[in-house]
Amino acid sequence: MFWGQKHPVRDEQLSAYADGRVPSAERPRLEAHIESCASCREALAELRALRQALSSMPSAPVPRSFALREADVRRPERTSAAGGRVAAAVPVLSGVTMAAFLAFGVLLSMDMTGSTSMSSDKDLAQPASSLGVLPSGTTMGNVLPPEGQNYQGEDASLRLTATAASSRDQLGLQFATPPRSPTEEVARDEAKGDDSETALRMAEMATAAAGLVAGGSLAMVWWRRRT
Amino acid sequence: MAPLNEAARLDEEELLERCRRGDLEAFNTVVVAYQEQVYNLCLRMLGSPPAAEDAAQEAFLSAYRKIGSMRGPSARSWLLRIAANTCIDELRRRKRRPQVSLDVPVPSEEGSRPIDVPDPVAGPEQLALRHELWRALRTELLRLPEDQRLAVILCDVEGLSYEEIAATMGGSLGTVKSRISRGRARLRVSLREKPELFGDVIRLTEETR
After folding, report:
1. Using omega within 30 degrees of 0 as the cis cutoff, is the peptide bond preceding B73 cis?
2. In angstroms, rounded to a whole number, what is the distance separating the alpha carbons of residues A65 and B28?
3. Helices B173-192 and B195-207, interaxial angle, to 10°?
4. A209, B76, B93, B146 - which has most CB atoms within 10 Å?
5. Which residue of B has its CA nearest to A80?
6. Residue B164 in contact with residue B56, Cβ under 8 Å?
7. How confident is the model at residue A77 (pLDDT cuts 50, 70, 90)?
């Protein structure tokens, strides 16, 4: 539909009128015209129907979550933005190197607390940063890869939760650090055990302590290569 | 599309503050809140689900990197702006590659979840016609020139104001008005060829005003 030259109202004015965007000074004249012009009334009806149809258009569900992973956003020059959270990937550790870390950690916590009680084991397993999944199936940057969050391989007596290492020299010490906040405690890192497990751990310690440094270095190299 | 109430707005402000400090978890909360809108904007602009997925991913990455410079009024319009520009860039890229087919596949409605249809008549036949109308609209939108397509989507589908659209696309309010008007005019012309679809909507819209 298009109007001859004499038609006083343009498409654009009707479009703005349908949006309530005609300046108040112009409105009376425009409304007077619409009232007397069938083609304008029809055009306006079409515009409103179109708007109504478009505004109610169905949405397709998202094919997947678009939450970003740590690996998506990491850049070489990036440093930790806030004191708390750390932009480091969580290493996937093999059973042996994990046992080595564990042994070192137990050793340290024993040193510090002078006991091999359950509580020090708990300290051991608590992560320095929180792990978890956001609702709706999204994943946080620091979450472990889906393959497994319980490393029950060789080290069957303990359930390990890997921690995010903020810097290399803190690796061992982190095991003895208490959690920063209650929210960082994760259900799965209840490192329950009993006396026999303690004995088992001590045995592991003895054998693994010697290989700790080598294991730790290997893990670090492997971690770097992977990310 | 209702405006956030005060409590929700304050919550979002706190969340955004955490985002600005580099908190990825906070950012992902924002992502989850708006990903459907962002993805659908990309889908309506680009036409194919894989292209929309790529564009949405790129938009969120870009948003994360720019979060420090994010200003109000809300995360929603800011994210839609980034998504819109990502789509425009992709459409321009496509133009520069002549071997890319310009016959864009129309996204199927499979899996689409209709939002609340404020329609007094909700019988199955009416609903079927309405779905056909939406399918026709999706096709016709993809035939519009990009700037008109984006302007109409932002205005009529996403409910942004002229000012927000001008901030998103650049240009003056006059340019925005013009793009919206011309886009709508083209859509009306093509829909007039389907009176069985459009006629009912016109009648119902007028009756329930």
Report:
1. yes
2. 10
3. 120
4. B76
5. B22
6. no
7. very low
| Residue B81 identity (one-letter amino acid) | R
Cβ distance A134 to B162 less than 8 Å, yes or no, reads no
pLDDT at B47: 95
- Reply yes or no on whether the pLDDT at A127 is more than 70: no
Average pLDDT on B114-133 reads 71
The number of CA neighbours under 13 Å toward the Cβ of B182 is 15
Residues 6+ positions from B32 with CB-CB distance below 8 Å? A65, A67, A134, A135, A136, A138
What is the percent of chain A with per-residue pLDDT over 70, rounded to a whole number? 30
Task: Note whether B31 contacts A66, CB cutoff 8 Å.
Answer: yes
Which residues of chain B does A58 touch, with a Cβ-Cβ cutoff of 8 Å?
Answer: 109, 112-115, 131, 134
- Residues A47, B185, B123, B118: is their CA dihedral positive or negative? negative
What is the pTM (predicted TM-score) of this model? 0.61
* Chain B from 149 to 168: CB within 8 A of any A CB: 152-153, 155-157, 159, 162
CA B164 vs CA A51, B31, B65, B96, B155: distances in Å? 18, 20, 22, 29, 9
Given B60, B112, B201, which is nearest A52 (Cβ)?
A: B201
* CA separation, residue B192 to residues A9, A50, A141 (Å): 21, 11, 50
Classify residue B132 by burial, with Cβ atoms within 10 Å: 0-12, 13-18, 19+: middle
CB atoms within 10 A of CB A117: 12
* Pairwise CA distance, residues A223 & A57, whole Å: 47
Contact predicate B135/B106, CB 8 Å: yes
Q: What is the pLDDT of residues A2-13, one digit of tens each?
A: 555 568 888 999
